[in-house]
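[Automated response] Your request has been received and processed.

Submitted sequence:
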Amino acid sequence: MSERLADWTRSEEAVTYQTCTACGHVQYFHRAFCAACGASNPRVARASGKGRVYATSLVCRAATPETRAHVPYNILLVDCAEGFRMMAHGETDLAIGDEVTASFKPFAGKLVPFFAKRK
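Generated structure:
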């Protein structure tokens, strides 16, 4: 992984993904190789933040003391415009199929992607 772009996993307001330069496979979890063909050094790119809700789960019981203040909160699977699926937080009224856009909000001491209905 030769490129380093801003990413929410380092408390920066961005989502990044990788594309294989050999086969075109798109992957969200960063690796030193393509999960589809094994080629090394996939290209890193910044996502647009646009997507569609694939699944949603409203959490009504805190898993940890740090998340208690956020209950109820919505966990989503989002099919991002670039072709990868990611898990993220979102508005509690989102439904499967809603078009969404990412922003970033604090959650239990960390900055996380937060999706809202696209306007």
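Summary generated for your ticket: The chain has two domains: 1-46, 50-117. Strands lie at 16-19, 26-27, 43-46, 50-59, 73-80, 85-90, 99-107, 110-117.
If you did not submit this request, please reply to this message.
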